[in-house]
User: Which sequence fits this backbone?
């Protein structure tokens, strides 16, 4: 029988592999954006983001192994459910953006903002996915310190990142998303 720790480590291994695939897609899409005249902003905070997200997976393993965190039962299963929802939202966002998706802030002049997929409901669904993931993935195996520390660090990073991204996207973006919430979709009344 597979232990919960082995299952958790395998899950983290899959997440790490997924991130490597995402980086390949991101680099390909960034090259296409630059070839179309794309302009990058936010390079300084991007380095911080890379370090934060790289250390996150390491911290998930380190806390669980070093502190011998037990599998928390129902909370762990609920956290796994949230983590899987976060992955679905991440990929819905990536597919909706298509060739425009990458991990950097690169704006191709003259393109209209993407308003399909989850962008019909939120300005930043990919960041919602990241917030959910950073909270849920550690909690799958009781790594609550990692969940708290990386969630707080990510909140600070997102304050900078979202301002930079929205400024780079400009007036067309502001007009297209004027009535859309950033993170929590509004439930229609009636």
Assistant:
């Amino acid at each position: 029988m597979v232990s919960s720790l082995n299952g958790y480590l395998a899950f983290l291994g899959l997440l790490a592999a997924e991130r490597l695939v995402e980086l390949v897609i991101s680099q390909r899409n960034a090259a296409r954006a630059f070839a179309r005249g794309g302009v990058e902003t936010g390079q300084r905070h991007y380095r911080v983001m890379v370090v934060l997200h790289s250390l996150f997976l390491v911290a998930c393993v380190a806390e669980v192994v070093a502190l011998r965190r037990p599998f928390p039962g129902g909370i762990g299963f609920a956290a796994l459910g949230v983590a899987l929802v976060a992955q679905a939202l991440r990929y819905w966002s990536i597919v909706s953006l298509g060739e425009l998706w990458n991990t950097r802030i690169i704006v191709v002049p003259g393109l209209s903002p993407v308003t399909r997929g989850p962008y019909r409901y939120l300005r930043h669904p990919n960041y919602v996915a990241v917030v959910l993931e950073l909270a849920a993935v550690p909690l799958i195996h009781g790594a609550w310190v990692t969940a708290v520390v990386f969630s707080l660090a990510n909140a600070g990073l997102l304050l900078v990142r979202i301002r930079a991204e929205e400024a780079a996207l400009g007036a067309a973006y502001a007009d297209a998303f004027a009535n859309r919430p950033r993170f929590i979709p509004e439930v229609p009344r009636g």
